[in-house]
Amino acid sequence: MGTPRDYSSILMPSYSIRPLNFNQYLHLGKSHKLFQGEFINSICNNEEDPYLYYILSGKINICFLRTDGSSLVIATREAGNVFQSEYRGFASIAGDRLRFIAVENSVIISFTKKQLFDLMEQDRQIMDDFLYVVHMFYATLCHRLMNTACLSSSQRFLTWLDKLCRINTPDRNGHHIIECDLTQQQIADLLFIHLTTCNRLITGLEKEKIIKKTKTHIYVYNSKKINEYLLDESKIVY
Amino acid sequence: MGTPRDYSSILMPSYSIRPLNFNQYLHLGKSHKLFQGEFINSICNNEEDPYLYYILSGKINICFLRTDGSSLVIATREAGNVFQSEYRGFASIAGDRLRFIAVENSVIISFTKKQLFDLMEQDRQIMDDFLYVVHMFYATLCHRLMNTACLSSSQRFLTWLDKLCRINTPDRNGHHIIECDLTQQQIADLLFIHLTTCNRLITGLEKEKIIKKTKTHIYVYNSKKINEYLLDESKIVY
């Protein structure tokens, strides 16, 4: 999930599509090193608590831990992008806990809430960046919700393929050649479905020559058929 | 969904838990009347586009329309609370569209992005309110995602009941008496499950005397059993 292709290949950008002006103020922040696998639980309750984190290098997963110990990756954020700490415990309900985990060795720069407010007051571009960051995160959460809620596993998979086709121009043969290096496990995680279901769906669609998944690409040979199956799920037998 | 009990009874507050300082600046905004069922598609692309809406009276549902015409209510916002327009089309992907629908006759006051930035510059309480609003919306989206992703219908229902028990103190008999006037359809919508599944789950748990649902309350007589079922779903036969 590391290039500007992410949006068109998985619909879950982890990079910032535009450079953020926060990088002009990094000297004001506080630097933290996180080794791969290390995590922080950051909750901002007061003005002086760390609130905004700029990722200088590495990669951070924003995760929810459930009461039963299972965890879900909500979003990934990479170098040049920022993430916000939890605010006043709003996100952690009952046993759920928000956690920020370093997927690689990472260096992050934290700004307190007061620092962010000071910067926003001085520099309107920071306000603009903040809005941008907030709405990119809304979009990620909404897309995942829309790709999950009230949809069966096969509907989730087909909805995702359909969206990928809609934002990628087909070649002259009407085939969509979509760069996508996700493993089947990563696709399953993205769509909140089981790995075995994901395997079965891919194999089934491959047998019908509707798609082909390689290590680097998804080839969609028949996007019309994907639409048909979406409208009438009973036609899918796998 | 109209009182401060919402949080403890459904986990989806539609009101603002604290009064917002935006109400001091309503004379600067632009007033709009929406009849019940009327909707707006608001996308903020420029400084002068409406961005923030304060609800003076009525109730607004924030909905996603899917390509297939089905729609999902993501959140509800009521008088005294605010909602943000879509920002630069981030939320609308492929066929998905964000829509703001009046559930009752409503009067809303819009502020442009420039106006919001001006207010935030002048009045730090507005910055603080904005952060509050953003994180309340994150929380709503995250809770719904956490209550849906990778969970079967019965797990969703039990997870929800478990959370309600955890934030409501039991009485001296260990019973949780939770104010909840949602219909079974509304519970189904909240958990993104089918109505028939919802009915079956409630009836099943009632037969075992674990819960009782009335028009105004959910009585949980045995929260321990709910925990057990959550850990071992195979024990649920309905």
From TrEMBL, chains A, B:
Record has Transcription as a keyword: yes
Domain HTH crp-type: 159-224
InterPro entries (UniProt xref): cNMP-bd_dom, cNMP-bd_dom_sf, HTH_CRP, RmlC-like_jellyroll, WH-like_DNA-bd_sf, WH_DNA-bd_sf
Keywords: DNA-binding, Transcription, Transcription regulation
Signal sequence residues: none
Any one Gene Ontology molecular-function term assigned to this protein's record: DNA binding
GO terms (BP aspect): regulation of DNA-templated transcription
A Pfam cross-reference name: HTH_Crp_2
Protein's name according to its UniProt entry: Crp/Fnr family transcriptional regulator
Species classification: Bacteria, Bacillati, Bacillota, Clostridia, Eubacteriales
